[in-house]
């Protein structure tokens, strides 16, 4: 990857096709939901969070789905939620769950978004942000270890789908929103 001196890499921003969705991707704790919600307000767009969509539809939490049906069942719901959000004609900001990039079909779907912004931060930073709440079943008792493993596995996949990379480690949610607005408008 090229260097990110400015903290933002805008190599191939933005595609002029589809509904013009702006998708946020990144590891758990990177701020996709919080930043995404604020970004949608700032841009005057709708907001879709794929985990929230799944929970609403199933009437169960992500953790409950993982525990009762297993991860593959959750991944199927995740793929359906992404396809629905990307397929919608109403331009939106979409916070895609962290694992969405694992499935090559999802990565293909992401190519239909106008912009896919990878909110990037080191596992050490993310670990300090995921302390509150135990709603993330993959983190277990060793959040930092899990985040390191996920980062090693997924960073190349986020890199593959991203039209822009924003280093959020030292940014407040407000600052991140401002940077993304600059990237996508
Ligand atoms: C997951 C990320 C979570 C949630 C689930 C699995 C992952 O979403 O979908 O716990 O595999 O990275 P967030 O990234 O929104 O926390």
Characteristics of this structure?
185 residues, alpha/beta, 6 strands, Rossmann fold, disordered N terminus, six-stranded mixed sheet
Walkthrough of the structure:
The chain is 49% helix and 13% strand. It has 8 helices and 6 strands, in the order ββαβαααβαβααβα. The protein has helices spanning 32-43, 50-58, 62-69, 71-87, 104-110, 123-129, 143-161, 173-184, and strands spanning 8-9, 22-25, 46-49, 92-95, 115-120, 164-167. A 6-stranded mixed β-sheet has the order 1-6-5-2-4-3, with helices on both faces. α1 packs across α8, α2 (50-58) crosses α4 (71-87) and α4 runs parallel beside α5. The longest helix has 19 residues, at 143-161. It is globular, with a radius of gyration of 15 Å. The two termini are 24 Å apart. Residues 1-6 have low confidence and may be disordered. It binds shikimate-3-phosphate (S3P).
What is the CATH domain class? Alpha Beta
Number of helices: 8
Looking at the structure, the CATH topology is Rossmann fold
H and E string: EEHEHHHEHEHHEH
Globally, the shape reads: globular
The unique ligands bound to this protein are:
shikimate-3-phosphate
Largest sheet: 6 strands, mixed
| Cross-sheet strand order for the largest sheet | 1-6-5-2-4-3
Strand content: 5-15%
CATH superfamily: P-loop containing nucleotide triphosphate hydrolases
Radius of gyration: 15 Å
Nearest-integer average pLDDT: 90
Structural class: alpha/beta
| Unreliably modeled segments | 1-6
Distance between the termini: 24 Å
Helix content: 40-55%
CATH architecture: 3-Layer(aba) Sandwich
What is the number of independent domains? 1
Total strands: the figure is 6
């Amino acid at each position: 990857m090229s260097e990110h001196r400015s903290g933002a890499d805008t190599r191939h921003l933005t595609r002029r096709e589809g509904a013009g969705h702006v998708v946020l991707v990144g590891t758990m704790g990177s701020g996709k939901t919080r930043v995404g919600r604020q970004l949608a307000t700032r841009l005057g767009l709708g907001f879709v969070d794929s985990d929230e969509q799944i929970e609403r539809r199933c009437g169960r939490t992500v953790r409950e789905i993982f525990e009762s049906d297993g991860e593959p069942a959750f991944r199927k719901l995740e793929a359906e939620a992404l396809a629905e959000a990307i397929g919608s004609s109403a331009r939106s900001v979409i916070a895609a769950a962290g694992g969405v990039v694992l499935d090559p079909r999802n990565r293909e779907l992401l190519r239909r978004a106008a912009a896919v912004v990878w909110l990037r931060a080191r596992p050490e930073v993310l670990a300090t942000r995921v302390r509150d709440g135990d709603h993330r079943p993959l983190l277990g008792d060793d959040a930092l270890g899990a985040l390191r493993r996920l980062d090693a596995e997924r960073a190349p996949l986020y890199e593959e789908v991203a039209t822009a990379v924003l280093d959020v480690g030292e940014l407040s949610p407000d600052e991140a929103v401002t940077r993304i607005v600059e990237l996508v408008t």
